[in-house]
Amino acid sequence: MPQDAFSHVTTWVFDLDNTLYPPSARLFDLIEVRMTDWVMRTLRVDRAEADRLRLKYWQDHGTTLAGLMREHGADPAPYLDDVHNISLDSLAPDPALAARIADLPGRRIVYTNGSAPYAERVLDARGLSGLFDAIYGVEHADFHPKPDRAAFDRVFARDGLAPDRAAMFEDDARNLAVPHDLGMRTVHVAPERADAPHVQFHTDDLVLFLDKVLGRTA
Fold it and tell me: Which of 47, 64, 180, 210 has the smallest number of CB atoms closer than 10 Å to its CB?
């Protein structure tokens, strides 16, 4: 039962994009357009090549930014400001999710491969501001992206959390491998479950799953 499996958890770690809002909001579609535009301008390539590099770097390095930094020496700060400068009109407050997160015992944090200021904007649009004890962006991992072990090591050390008493909620199953290895409970939040040994739980309804964790439904 989820309640028993999470009874020891004192720190709840949530990814942001497509985890604390539904994929149907399609925010990442907007971000990807801006990523491609940035690659076009910076590397002086056409749109097709920029789009190919954006996807290749995400696959090979965990994020497009990591690939741009490692292969082209890109400055991360202006990149992060630019690609996250998107409209959040597709987001709406979710009082039910806010209530479940507020009721989780212990510390609650957000850890995203995006930037912390972007995360704060998203949380505000979702009515989740003030619920988290800390918000960590890729800048807090010295720009190492999930799923790199170095990224988790930096953020978790900064936070001081004990992995064996923590849980991680993520839409990208790749990003649950290291948390699982560290001894965290892992929850894949996505329309379909990834068949991987490091995915302990799956849900396509975060509110319902948190109800189970809190012992409010079977």
Answer: 47
